């Protein structure tokens, strides 16, 4: 859509609340006409226009062409430079992309680059944080505050004569490829001029518009986040089905210059398949792809983050560094005065509540009270399970200074040996 917001010198209209008197000044009428008023009028016209089979088939074909103009052209080629295209393919994509009636390549790509650079912030032109309907539609229906506009570098696009031509002649492109071309095909082909205009022209671009808008709304709201959950982009097959494969949006925001959105062969990404096919035909080249190793790293790190979050919610016992340090003699004295304390691997455990429930019986634990039961616990009698180790850690109450009886014994022995040699 064309950015035709008139700027008030004192304050922009977007800084004033919407009221009954000023609402029409908040509306971007050019956008609203192209994405709402004309499509709604054509829905009414469709009630009085019979849908003929060849027109229906042509509408579906042209839906895919113009959809690809957006996904493979506007998005993956011009916004992200994920591959290069020869002049023929660029002209084709600029024409059919224009026929999707979503603004010029230059306008669309600058907004989209801002969306990637400032995802979920006020400078994100279609931030889902402002609401699902806002990110889908209202960001175009309402004027945007120029102070919140996220600026981006599109100098590379201005070097492409196809992009410059399309921007300068956008009105002609929309009229020709949005309405006249599909109407002429149906009219000259099988005499259905009205059906060609209503179905293959206007209703078709209405559907392509709504499908593309789902990438900004649905793909930031529905699905999984296998690569990064700090921002809103998500992966979901439904969004992929609606948007010619643009639904693997969590992956896309992590690896935006990859020509693929779906990395698995069985996932639905007809945009990727088309680009690959154009490569085979010599129309596209330099298809960019992140190494599987880099992609897997992102996936593993996100998995690790989830595991860490689950781990943090569990009781693992008091951390060792927070436990009081107790001398061996004090530990023995405490145990003799009636406390049910057991030392295992240099850590004192209070087994008062557990002693009766011990699956190995009360007697075994009792025999370790006031003693270093490390060997007993770690296989001297029975090699305890991982679960037992975990349970034990929740009972820890102190750390033995110097590590426990074994260390004291070894230290004493070394001292005696040293004394012996010095004598
Ligand atoms: Zn996005
Ligand atoms: Zn993108």
User: How many DSSP H or I helices?
Assistant: 19
Beta-strand residue percentage: under 5%
Number of strands: 6
Label the overall shape. elongated
- Low-pLDDT stretches are none
Q: Strand arrangement, largest sheet?
A: 3-6-5-4
Order of helices and strands: HHHEHHHHHHHHHHEHEHEEHHHEH
Bound ligands, each once:
zinc ion
Distance from N terminus to C terminus (CA atoms, Å) equals 97 Å
Largest sheet: 4 strands, mixed
Helix content: 40-55%
GO molecular function: heme binding; iron ion binding; stearoyl-CoA 9-desaturase activity
Main location: membrane
Pfam families: Cyt-b5, FA_desaturase
Function: Stearoyl-CoA desaturase that utilizes O(2) and electrons from reduced cytochrome b5 to introduce the first double bond into saturated fatty acyl-CoA substrates.
Model description:
By secondary structure, the chain is mainly alpha-helical. It has 2 domains: 13-302, no CATH class; 320-422, Roll (Flavocytochrome B2, Chain A, domain 1). It is 54% helix and 4% strand. It has 19 helices and 6 strands. It has helices at residues 23-26, 29-47, 53-79, 87-98, 105-117, 132-141, 155-158, 161-168, 170-190, 193-216, 237-242, 249-254, 270-280, 292-312, 328-336, 362-366, 374-377, 386-393, 405-422; strands at residues 84-85, 284-285, 325-326, 341-344, 347-350, 396-400. The protein has a 4-stranded mixed β-sheet. Strand 4 (341-344) and strand 5 (347-350) form a beta hairpin. Helix 3 (53-79) packs parallel to helix 10 and helix 9 (170-190) packs across helix 10 (193-216). The longest helix is centred in the N-terminal third of the chain and has 27 residues, at 53-79. The protein is elongated, with a radius of gyration of 34 Å. The N and C termini lie far apart (97 Å). The mean pLDDT is 90. The chain binds zinc ion (2 copies). Residues 115, 220, 233, 249, 253 line the site of one zinc ion. One zinc ion (ZN) binds at residues 75, 79-80, 112, 116, 252, 256. One of its GO terms (molecular function) is heme binding. It comes from Penicillium argentinense. This is Acyl-CoA desaturase.
């Amino acid at each position: 859509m064309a950015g035709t917001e008139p700027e008030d010198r004192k304050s922009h209209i977007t800084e004033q609340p919407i009221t009954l008197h000023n609402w029409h000044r908040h509306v971007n009428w050019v956008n609203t006409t192209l994405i709402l008023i004309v499509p709604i009028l054509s829905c009414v016209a469709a009630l009085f226009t019979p849908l003929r089979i060849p027109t229906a088939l042509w509408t579906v074909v042209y839906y895919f062409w113009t959809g690809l103009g957006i996904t493979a052209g506007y998005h993956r080629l011009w916004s992200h430079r994920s591959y290069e295209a020869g002049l023929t393919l660029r002209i084709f994509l600029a024409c059919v992309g224009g026929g999707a009636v979503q603004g010029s390549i230059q306008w669309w790509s600058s907004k989209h680059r801002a969306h990637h650079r400032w995802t979920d912030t006020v400078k994100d032109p279609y931030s889902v944080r402002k609401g699902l309907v806002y990110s889908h539609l209202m960001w175009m229906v309402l004027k945007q505050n120029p102070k919140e506009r996220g600026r981006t570098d599109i100098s590379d696009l201005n070097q492409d004569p196809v992009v410059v031509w399309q921007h300068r002649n956008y009105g002609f492109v929309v009229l020709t490829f949005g309405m006249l071309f599909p109407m002429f095909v149906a009219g000259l082909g099988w005499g259905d001029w009205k059906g060609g205009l209503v179905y293959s022209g206007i209703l078709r671009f209405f559907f392509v518009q709504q499908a593309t808008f789902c990438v900004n709304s649905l793909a930031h709201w529905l699905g999984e986040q296998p690569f990064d959950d700090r921002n809103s982009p998500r992966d979901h097959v439904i969004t992929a089905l609606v948007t010619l494969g643009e639904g693997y949006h969590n992956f896309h925001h992590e690896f935006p210059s990859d020509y693929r959105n779906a990395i698995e062969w069985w996932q639905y990404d007809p945009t990727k398949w088309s680009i690959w096919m154009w490569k085979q035909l010599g129309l596209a080249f330099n298809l960019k792809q992140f190494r599987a190793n880099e992609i897997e790293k992102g996936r593993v790190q996100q998995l690790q983050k989830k595991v860490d979050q689950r781990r943090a919610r569990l009781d693992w016992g008091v951390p060792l560094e927070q436990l009081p340090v107790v001398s061996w003699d004090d530990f023995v004295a405490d145990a003799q005065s009636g406390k049910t304390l057991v030392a295992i691997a240099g850590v004192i455990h209070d087994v008062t509540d557990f002693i009766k429930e011990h699956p190995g019986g009360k007697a075994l634990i009792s025999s370790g009270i006031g003693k270093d039961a490390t060997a007993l616990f770690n296989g001297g009698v029975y090699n305890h399970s991982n679960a037992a180790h975990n349970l034990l850690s929740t009972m820890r109450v102190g750390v033995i200074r110097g590590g426990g009886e074994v260390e004291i014994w070894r230290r004493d022995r070394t001292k005696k040996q040293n004394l012996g040699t010095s004598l």
